[in-house]
Amino acid sequence: MLKGSLVPLVGIGLAWGMWMEPASVWAAEASKLDSGDTAWLLVSTALVMLMTPGLALFYGGMARKKNVLNTIMLSFVCLCLVSVQWVLWGYSLSFGPDLGGIIGGLDFLGLRGVGFEPLEGQSIPHQLFMMFQGMFAVITPALITGALVERMKFSSFVVFLMSWCTLVYAPLAHWVWGKGWLAGLGALDFAGGTVVHISSGVSALAACLLLGRRKGVGSEPMHPNNLPMTVTGAALLWFGWFGFNAGSALTAGAVAANALVVTHTASAMAACAWMGVEWLHRGKPTALGTVTGAVAGLVGITPAAGYVGVGGALAIGLGAGIFCYLAVVRLKPALGYDDSLDVFGVHGVGGTWGALATGIFATSGIPGSSDGLLAGNLNQFLVQVLATAVTWLMSFGFTLGILLAVKGIMGLRVAEEEEMLGLDLSIHGERGYGLELAEGGLSKSAGLGTHTLAATVSRPVSGPLGT
Hints:
Oligomer: single chain
Number of strands: 4
Low-confidence stretches: 22-28, 437-467
Strand order of the largest sheet: 1-2
Mean pLDDT: 90
Helix content: 55-70%
Shape: globular
Radius of gyration: 23 Å
CATH class: Mainly Alpha
């Protein structure tokens, strides 16, 4: 029975493969390919791919112990599903031939016509450019998951994920990077301040407003389950971000080198700024706060990495550390929304600051850049304001519409008893840890008896996230 059912599937697969890969795509490599650029983009693609597992660890450590696997799974499923979506239709909608400045055509559907030959003005294989951009498409919705953790149905998330990548990410990527209308106006976004960070951060805000608060928020402890995991995830993100930003130069040259330098500088500055402000405000510099500041700096420099020098990077990092801290510690409690892992505070606010700061600190001294406001170019700053506002409106409105549709069809939240049990068990039937961690300590009924080690296993966390 199984053998018979596989025959039509194999036939469909063979037919699909033949349609997707015409012989002309696999012509001899063009002489204009550059081996150095190609090698750098191969490495950069792998670095950006590593960021999604890094994000899974970063978020997973901040979730409560009963939801750690579900939190990690949300990022991992983005890596799997979005990769398939990107190959089938996502890339074509994002980077296919322009249709009125709004969306890409279907010429590259199923990667038809995407082979070794580089695109115009590039020196790397078209296939490699496609895969590099695909890693951006993967991590962007994964960022949103930090606002949804501990209460959203997994099935509903899968439907939302595929819809969001098609209706929000693909058009935005085309507008900014695919010769769309924002690119035509001269909007600067080197590696994703608008396309990746504002879109994910603002979408996260819309999602957590519609989902509502987690049970127990404000009345019971919401301690991170594993801060060393979060620190490890942040370190992997920082490492991968070199490919994210410097790789966006698409060449192994001076622009890539500058992007790498300013990326590291801004992240370090933002970590110092967050740590300093938190130390003054709360009396203690936390590990959680410091690594969150580093991520905020990475977010802030993303749109500017190919357009600003070290001075601009220091200013952007300083602003990112301070503004994102205030968004997390002041704005969120004041407005009362439950952005579980502060996606909006870090990516929405940090991305907005970065996009606007690009229009302030950009300098024509970097190849391919133009001057910003400080160099007397008011027009560039106004274009950045427009691109930022459009991304805000598009991301919030479309995300809200998608989620309302999903809610009406299949619901968004798990049942209350499932939420109280924890999504690891109620959705996946697994536990993240072999030992049962209690709020006051550690216990295990089998083998160890029942022990409480409150002093060494669990203590209140004073960091700004996971609360």
